[in-house]
From TrEMBL:
Residues 183-194 have a biased composition (Basic residues). Pfam families: TetR_C_33, TetR_N. GO terms for molecular function: DNA-binding transcription factor activity; transcription cis-regulatory region binding. Residues 6-66 form the HTH tetR-type domain. This is TetR family transcriptional regulator. Keywords: DNA-binding, Transcription, Transcription regulation.
Length: 215
């Protein structure tokens, strides 16, 4: 007697991620995943009742993979080194696993970014930006650097930089962010308001040296 193949959510998820990485997201479906696993689509419904549930789980899996890279990079106590390593980790993930990266960023399911892994990835970006900007929870700086990195990763993958490459554009962009952050973090010396005694002295000097009226 033939028994049905044993499945687990992890097996299904691993297969779905592999399919996206190899062929992109267009062919992803419960039927396609079931076919690769050698079972019928209804066998997957126990774990993922519809395609949308599988997509949410795939995004979470991708975010966890990205989180692992970025956590390893964020260990440096030096703010600038930490910032640069976070940038490198983000772009390295995008380069090496671009199909997954694209699937993640093109997901139209905002609930995936509110997940535990999604919040953790965003927290690392905010902390790296805040550490160099000197401002607590500097969301504006985090959004700026994230937008820059996503644009760079997309342009690089598409070949838009041409045969000559970006010609140091990434390094210049990162340095521009750091320079801006340094200037914002530098304390500005406030002018001391004049004291009452200073005003009195100035008044006495003006009486001793009255301005000559013009003829």
């Amino acid at each position: 007697m033939a028994y049905p193949k044993l499945l687990s959510a992890a097996d299904i998820l691993k297969t779905a991620v592999h399919m996206i990485e190899q062929d992109g997201a267009d062919g992803l479906s419960l039927r396609a995943v079931a076919s690769v696993l050698g079972v019928k689509a209804p066998s997957l419904y126990r774990y993922f009742p519809q395609k949308e549930a599988l997509e949410v789980a795939v995004v979470e899996e991708i975010l966890n993979a990205m989180l692992g890279r970025m956590q390893a990079a964020s260990a440096s106590p030096d703010p600038e080194i930490r910032f640069r390593k976070t940038v490198d980790a983000y772009l390295q993930f995008a380069r090496e696993r671009f199909q997954l990266y694209t699937f993640l960023l093109q997901s139209r399911r905002p609930e995936t970014y509110a997940s535990k892994a999604g919040k953790a990835v965003w927290k690392l970006v905010v902390e790296a930006a805040s550490a160099v900007s000197g401002l607590q929870d500097d969301t504006a700086a985090a959004v700026a650097i994230w937008s820059f990195l996503h644009g760079y990763a997309t342009l690089e993958h598409s070949g838009a930089f041409g045969a000559s490459g970006p010609k140091g554009g990434l390094e210049r962009g990162v340095e521009a962010f750091l320079s801006s952050f340094r200037s914002r973090a530098r304390p500005v010396r406030k002018k001391r308001p004049p004291r009452t005694t200073d005003l009195r002295r100035a008044g006495k000097r003006s009486l001793r040296n009255p301005t000559r009226s013009s003829n």
